Amino acid sequence: MKLYFLSTVLSGSNFFCKIWEGSGFANTGLGNILMIFVGVVLIFLAIRYSYKPLLLIPLGIGVILGNIPFLQTASYAIGIYEDGSVLHYLFQGVLKGIYPALIFLGLGAMTDLSPLISNPKLMLLGMAAQVGIFATFLGAMLFGFPIEQAAAVSIIGGADGNTAIFLSSQIANGLKLQPQALNVQNLIGPIAIAAYLYMALVPVIQPPIARLLTTKKERRIRMKPLRSLHRYEKILFSLSGLLLTAFIAPAALPLLGMFFFGNILKESGLTKQLANTASTVLIDIMLILVGITVGASTQADVFLKPESLVILLLGFVSFILATAGGVIFAKIMNLFLKKENRINPLIGAAGVAALPDSAHTIHEMGLKEDASNYLIVHATAPNIAGVIGSAITAGLLLSFIL
Amino acid sequence: MRLLTVTFNGAFIDSNVWLIALCIFCTVLASLAILAFVFARIHTIQDYRNRRKMKKEEEIQAAKPKKPVITGEENAAIATALFLYFSEMHDEEQYVTTIRKVSRTYSPWNAKIYGIWNSMKR
């Protein structure tokens, strides 16, 4: 009887031991706790300060999901890097560049390109993002990143999360780029986190820099109202934009092709339901999937490396440079423009690719200086140019490296 | 400077890296400039379309049969005649006041048969 009791207790404790071994508590490490804390911080930033909640909440939850510790030897098939897991299948959309392309489709369907068509010279302000991109590229090379990883990291400088994910999924995905080459490092997680974090922090980072580089008088410049446009003009713009960019950088076709396709759906006026789906339901689904999978890809063993810290640092510096570059470029342009055509230099800061957050931030800055000076429409133009410029750069870098 | 496993070294950027960065930067700048140039010309195409449309309309107008030309003197004479006609329309009044008889429908409220005198005994 006693023996039976003892054996029952022992087998019971064995079961408990097994449960304990399989639990997260037994397998947790400092890295997991740190990453779960990062996830919580992202959610806090989104909810407390409304910093890009549509992105940061799925991303934060993804970071937490990806860092829940479990017994590695058990074949649960739950980790994002494990074959057969749900997250692994969902992550294919990132690895194959499907989600960024579909997000671009939605962006195209929701963006009104009229400000850019009415005032095409604002296209040049899209150079602001490029300053950031090339500063990051050189910075990453200085820190000893191989050229393909430096190229992937560089897109953070344009503050364009989708393009950054697209490029990193192609050339910094932890796989072999060429059959004879060595595996490249997987930097999708750090790059995406850095890009989205700086996109979310646009209202914090950009205003002080823009204010520092402009005078009160310059910030109060009123820009000429936009001319009205014919529907055909808008369609012609999208078509010519698609053809030109696709011919210059065919590697960026998944992004720019989808962007202009979405815009033609919107502007044609005959495919309203398709444009509505792309700009609402489809883009929302993609944001959920990108957020959760990219977040989950930041497993502590993949993410917690000195490289990630360097990427975050480079992103921050290059974002400042991009903002400053845009403002300075707008001021230089003003030297050559007539008084009535002058540009408010604040909108130069919107030349980064954080669409539409940057334009909104600049608009609010303008309103603080002059309550009746509405810059939102004008600031959207360099913002779109930044997106187009970043995508072209990504295409050129991709075609150069592959 | 050594930062854990990441090394910071200026020697990592050789002339090739500069060349790549510069080439790509210039290409993107040129692409944006080309786009700006093309988009600046789009409204010229629209203007050309509008001008053609206007020209066509003018041609259609020109092709229509011309109305007879009326000289200024004739116009003035017509205008004076119209003015005189309309301003003298009410010159002759009838000066007769007409009182129209209004027929009223029967209402029993003041009918004699319901008068108080009928109920009084004489």
Descriptive overview:
The complex is a heterodimer of chains A (402) and B (122). By secondary structure, chain A is mostly helical. Chain A has one domain (93-401). Chain A is 70% helix and 0% strand. Chain A has helices at residues 2-22, 24-27, 30-49, 53-66, 86-95, 98-110, 114-118, 127-142, 147-154, 161-171, 188-200, 202-212, 216-219, 231-248, 253-268, 272-296, 300-303, 306-336, 357-369, 376-401. The termini of chain A are far apart. Chain B has a domain at 1-62. Chain B is built from three helices and two strands; from the N terminus they run ββααα. In chain B, a hairpin with a 2-residue loop joins strand 1 and strand 2 (6-7). Chain B is elongated and about 135 Å long. The model of chain B has no long low-confidence stretch (mean pLDDT 76). Chain A binds chain B through residues 116-117, 120-121, 123-124, 126-127, 130, 134, 137-138, 141-144, 147, 227, 230, 232-233, 236-237, 240-241, 244-245, 248-249, 305-307, 310, 385, 388-389, 392-393, 396-397, 400, and chain B through 3-10, 12-13, 17, 20-21, 24-25, 27-29, 31-40, 42-43, 45-46.
Summarize the structure.
By secondary structure, chain A is mostly helical.
Task: Supply database-style keywords.
heterodimer, A: 402 residues, mainly alpha, 0% strand, elongated, B: 122 residues, two-stranded antiparallel ribbon, 3 helices, 2 strands
